[in-house]
């Protein structure tokens, strides 16, 4: 009877150590899951920051390109107008010599005005095309940023689900071990009671 009591107490001590070990393993798994979730969140934040920086850089580059295009168009128009003015002055000076020269000067001035108008129209069309391309590029960058953010969130959710599943599996294993320990303890107690009686 004394031997059975000693075995019963030893079994209880062993079960307690096993339960403590399982609880420690659950705590370690939970800590690892928290660290993994923090790492995933940090990676997502870094990816979003990089995507936003790229979008801002693209927008700045597009704005600079549009500004340069407009400046070039204005410069070309000004140069053409100066040439037209010089031609008009030259023609005006020669108008005093003959009426035919006056008609030719008028024709030249009209041709120069038409050329200036065409140049301005082409410059405006180029600027509008550049602006449309910039808007399309900005929209594509925004869509890429949204897709990257959605993929990062999906990865974080998947990691959290995997960690939860692992923790649930460990908890089930611990519950099974505790149930086995309780059954063994009950059996030992029953045997001890039978022999004591």
TrEMBL record:
Q: Which domain of life is it from?
A: Eukaryota
Which regions span the lipid bilayer? 21-40, 46-66, 73-93, 99-128, 135-161, 167-192
Is Transmembrane a UniProt keyword of this protein?
A: yes
Keyword annotations for this protein, in alphabetical order, are:
Membrane, Transmembrane, Transmembrane helix
Tell me what this protein is called.
Uncharacterized protein
Annotated organism of origin: Dreissena polymorpha (Zebra mussel)
